[in-house]
Design a protein that fits this description.
single chain; mainly alpha
């Protein structure tokens, strides 16, 4: 799977490349520090006011007090799930954009989100599932089936899979799934009432058991995605050039699709569809560090949770004690930022 060729950005004298690596490495350390800071803020801020000193104390010493119960049973699982799902969405978006060589690609483009949504609607309408844990497995299965279906449609016929064919297959499947979801919700008001709470995307009420359920899938997806960094760099050179260099283009696409399915399917199953995280963050990262996937993937994995958890914190403090779902906040924050990036400069080169 690993191909020994230089990435497309490895140009310039050795001293310049050394300084660039140092700057990118320092930036990654700063990004990790920012993530730790926003996670501490997430533990501290909530509908019940708890001093930061008490939050820090009960975090490491669970004394069974009311504050400790809030921190350990509610805010800690919520924060960890936000970090895990944010990392998964950022990586899924970066891998998907590299696979399709389309900077505007996101999990919705290839039908992954709609596959999960269709499975959850089916579970609610036909099996009576009403819990988040019940949604997890149906949504994950739906995302996996949608990914496989898009790949099979994209590889059917002569020429095999191409970015354009995969995107067109995803768009066609998305239209079919949206029609199915709309039809089921239209004829079953009870299903609509339950589905709309999952569909809006929220970290609220997700307990540690949800985190445990999705962690293995996301962990495997993260490892697989990071291992694909160098093959994705080769893919950016073009299919013919990649083949001439000895790269396994088909295998890279299959493994990339598996990684996206694991990452996006599990995260969507856990908290519902979240827009703009996997689209905007990798795009901003490429503007910051360039198109080398060896840097784009780790940066996206670290900075995406910062945006997701930060949006969740904002949703808690806007109108306490009520909370605004994180999916709504990310849409409000992500859309203007992404439009600004597109207007101020060209989309970062893949």
């Amino acid at each position: 799977m690993v191909v020994s060729v230089s990435p497309p950005v490895a140009a310039g004298p050795p001293a310049h490349r050394g300084r660039a690596r140092t700057l990118r490495g320092g930036g990654l350390v700063c990004a990790v520090a920012l993530l730790v800071l926003i996670m501490l803020v997430s533990l501290w801020v909530g509908s019940k006011s708890i001093p930061f000193g008490s939050t820090w104390s009960v975090l490491w010493h669970n004394d069974g007090s009311a504050d400790a119960v809030i921190i350990h049973d509610q805010r800690l699982p919520r924060t960890l799930l936000g970090a895990l799902v944010g990392a998964a969405l950022g990586l899924a978006g970066a891998v998907m954009q590299a696979l399709t060589r389309n900077p505007l690609a996101d999990p919705g483009l290839l039908g992954v989100n709609n596959g999960a949504a269709a499975a959850v609607v089916s579970a609610i309408a036909f099996t009576g599932v009403t819990t988040v844990l019940g949604y997890v497995w149906f949504a994950f299965l739906g995302a996996a089936v949608a990914s496989v279906a898009v790949y099979l449609l994209g590889t059917a016929g002569r020429g095999g899979a191409t970015p354009d064919r995969l995107v067109m297959s995803g768009a066609a499947l998305t239209a079919v799934l949206q029609a199915y979801i709309g039809a089921v919700l239209l004829i079953d008001p009870d299903t609509f009432n339950q589905f709309r709470f999952w569909n809006v995307g929220s970290l609220s009420g997700r307990r540690a058991d949800v985190l445990v359920q999705v962690s293995p899938f996301i962990a495997i997806g993260i490892v697989l995605a990071l291992l694909l960094a160098r093959p994705l760099n080769v893919l950016a050179l073009g299919e013919q050039t990649g083949k001439a260099l000895g790269a396994h283009i088909g295998r890279t696409r299959v493994l990339g699709a598996i990684a996206v399915t694991l990452l996006c399917g599990a995260s969507t199953a856990a908290i519902g569809p979240i827009a703009f995280i996997g689209l905007a963050v990798p795009q901003a990262v490429r503007i910051l560090v360039g198109p080398d996937q060896r840097w784009v993937l780790p940066y996206s994995m670290i900075l995406s949770p910062v945006l997701l958890i930060g949006s969740d914190v904002i949703g808690r403090i806007l109108n306490p004690p009520e909370e605004l779902q994180v999916g709504i906040v990310t849409a409000f924050l992500g859309a203007p930022v992404f439009i600004a990036l597109c207007r101020r400069r060209k989309l970062a080169r893949l």
